[in-house]
């Protein structure tokens, strides 16, 4: 349970000052992703950490203190400019823990209740982006 507690604490510190596209505290998104995988402590820990390295690089070194399987899943979920989208999604597909969290992440990001706070064109662009991501993950047919 320490891993889960530590992951949540790190995420809350890392995302403390961030806002989402609708101007709401970003940590709300992270917490909802973690709630979507409740019952799986490893997935919850990864969910809390899934955006830390990418969005808060000053906290990346702290992620390296977590168990290897947690770090590996977080690494799969972290977008890097030098990694092509196809390789990014292939790595997630190959890691069941990362895949579970990515699907929860997409579900939250594409939730109509969340998208309703955005301008219609931005909401549609994001809905299309997440539909493409699901296809790249092999969850829906192309």
Number of helices in the DSSP assignment: 10
User: What value does the Rg take, in angstroms?
Assistant: 15 Å
Query: Which H/E pattern describes the elements?
Result: HHHHHHHHHH
Helix content: 55-70%
CATH-level-2 architecture: Orthogonal Bundle
The CATH superfamily bears the name: Hypothetical protein af1432
Q: How would you sum up this structure, described in words?
A:
The chain has 142 residues and is mainly alpha-helical. It has one domain: Orthogonal Bundle (Hypothetical protein af1432), CATH 1.10.3210.10. It is built from 10 helices and no strands. α3 packs across α8 and α8 packs antiparallel against α10. The longest helix is centred in the last third of the chain and has 17 residues. The radius of gyration is 15 Å and the shape is globular. It starts with a helix and ends in a 6-residue tail after the last helix.
Features:
142 residues; Hypothetical protein af1432; globular; 10 helices; mainly alpha
Write a compact overview of the structure shown.
The protein has a single domain, classed as Hypothetical protein af1432 (Orthogonal Bundle), CATH 1.10.3210.10. It is built from 10 helices and no strands.
